[in-house]
Write a structure and sequence with these properties.
pantothenate biosynthesis, EC 4.1.1.11, Barwin-like endoglucanases, single chain, Asp_decarbox, pyruvate, autocatalytic cleavage, 9 strands
Length: 153
């Protein structure tokens, strides 16, 4: 069987995520977006005004929006505008940033996961190296039964 070509095509690559952040607010009266502590943005590589997916672990909602900076060191994660209908203070969420990458540049590219405590303070970071098609199936890369260990503040 012939493998698909990795030349030319752009693929969306999840380069950074904030895993299991606690929503600190939901503001219907703001124009839109998600407000995030710059400490968390730096750690994940997510830049202001860039598109992110936000998944609500608590209720299963998923939205797409853009990021704005909050107060440095505050732990703020606030859904603004219409997104405030899908998120409430105290909900757990995942924020994921993506970039369009030529498919032939994906092997070896790093994806970072930032883990936080209940106050959105960084407790750990994982980096995953993307394999090429011929590197798939390695037992060391199998993450099928990984369970996230929750960390309380």
């Amino acid at each position: 069987m012939t493998q698909p070509s990795l030349d030319g095509a752009l693929r969306q690559f999840m380069y950074g995520k904030l895993h299991r952040v606690t929503v600190t607010g939901a503001d219907l009266d703001y124009i839109g977006s998600i407000t995030v502590d710059p400490v968390l943005l730096r750690a994940s590589g997510i830049l202001p005004h860039t598109q992110v997916d936000v998944v609500n672990i608590t209720n299963g909602e998923r939205i797409q929006t853009y990021v704005i900076e909050g107060t440095e060191g505050s732990g703020v994660i606030c859904l603004n505008g219409a997104a405030a209908h899908q998120f409430s203070k105290g909900d757990l969420a995942i924020i994921m940033g993506y970039e369009a990458v030529p498919a032939n540049q994906l092997p070896g590219r790093i994806s970072r996961a930032v883990h936080v405590d209940a106050k959105n303070q960084i407790v750990d970071m994982d980096e995953y190296v993307t394999p090429g098609l011929d590197g798939l199936g390695s037992p060391a890369a199998n993450r099928e039964f990984e369970k996230y260990e929750t960390v309380d503040a």
